[in-house]
Amino acid sequence: MEEFKVRDKTIGAQGHLQIEWGATHMPVLNQIKNRFKKEKPLKGLMLGACLHVTKETAVLVETLMAGGAEVALCGSNPLSTQDEVAAALVEKGVHVFAQRGQTTEEYYWCLNKVLDYKPVITLDDGADLVGTLHSKRTADLPNVKGGTEETTTGVIRLRAMEKAGSLKYPIVAVNDAYTKYLFDNRYGTGQSTIDGVIRATNTLISGKTFVVGGYGWCSRGIAMRAQGMGANVIVTEVKPLRALEAAMNGFRVMPMVEAAPIGDIFVTATGDINVIRKEHIQKMKDGAIIANSGHFNVEISIKDLEALSIAKRKIRPNLEEYTLEDGRKLHLLAEGRLVNLSAAEGHPSEVMDMSFANQALCAEYLAKTTKLPPKVYTVPTDIDENIAELKLKSMGIEIDDLTEEQKKYLAAWEMGTT
């Protein structure tokens, strides 16, 4: 079998520096790595991972290998791989199949190369690895003990598989851990999305009307950070409770068709398809900027944008200008792919520290657990709380402990008003 396929295996030196920088800012994962070195909880296991190939992912892979695992890795998005990191991981003995700028065919070729290694545990970001196993590689399913899923979009797909009775092995929804979505999704996506928009455009955020599609945890973070930079933020939603929360948080809430004519910058992060489509594109003002931070490039209807345009040109990296029939120009960032990883570097290492700590500890949990029914599981509470404790410790923060009296009070029902 091929051991790896990366763009340039000679550029690993810069990748090693990037990984070192990431590890410096991931103290929780480093503590887990040190324990894994001693205990080897993953000894002899082949792990197959479909994740964004970044310096933070590299620190996770190093942790898994410290635990005794062998790792095969592919990218979870055609534009998110950091080629120098991929090269450095090859030098560390990882079976890497990833490069930035892949075609769809190349993307799935790499994914299948990972599956050729017959992983016992899968680590996924978007559920493409799981989806391929269940559709094209069913003969390999009996070899898989369990898996993890990193992102909201992937969990949505996996819960649909479970509901349909199609899921054949247990998956731990890392995305649903408190130490993941409250921090990674909100603060990580918020900061990295704004970073991606600015790197692609160098536009001023302050004073702009900034339209956020959705108000899940990722969108909350985007709206919060855009507001913090001086934007006038509009939120569009389909769920009444989320729309109400956005309104109570001080954002204007309206349908996308009403936001389209007044928005300057549009960012989607819903996990659904065609959030921005023909009827919205037709109403957008000249010069509008359109981007997506959802996992797949389906939230903006590129098909509709292409159909309504008479010309297209690349203005700068990750920025394409579409000219409509009436002369209006709209600007699409990063081909509609997740702008925070395609046009920037993704989430900061400090927040990925907790997310990938969940990945490492859930892989250990699956390795040690007897066979689970094929369902989507939440991260065990003790893992979630342990990660929070480790993060607080790394930040030099101490908290109170319950007294025996307080524990007794919380465990009883008799005492009320005195």
Automatic annotation (TrEMBL):
Pathway participation? Amino-acid biosynthesis; L-homocysteine biosynthesis; L-homocysteine from S-adenosyl-L-homocysteine: step 1/1
Which GO BP terms, alphabetically? L-homocysteine biosynthetic process; one-carbon metabolic process; S-adenosylmethionine cycle
- Please state every residue range assigned to the domain named S-adenosyl-L-homocysteine hydrolase NAD binding: 185-346
Q: What does the entry list as the binding residues for substrate?
A: T54, D125, E150, K180, D184
Task: Please give one Gene Ontology molecular function term for this protein.
Answer: adenosylhomocysteinase activity
NAD as UniProt keyword: yes
InterPro entries for this protein: Adenosylhomocyst_ase-like_sf, Adenosylhomocysteinase-like, Ado_hCys_hydrolase_NAD-bd, NAD(P)-bd_dom_sf, S-Ado-L-homoCys_hydrolase_CS
Compartment list? Cytoplasm
Catalysed conversion reaction:
S-adenosyl-L-homocysteine + H2O = L-homocysteine + adenosine
Q: Which residues bind NAD(+)?
A: 151-153, 185, 216-221, 237, 293-295, 340, 347
Q: Which SMART domains match?
A: AdoHcyase (SM00996), AdoHcyase_NAD (SM00997)
User: Where would one find the signal peptide in this protein?
Assistant: none
This chain belongs to the protein called Adenosylhomocysteinase
Q: Which organism is it from?
A: miscellaneous Crenarchaeota group-1 archaeon SG8-32-3
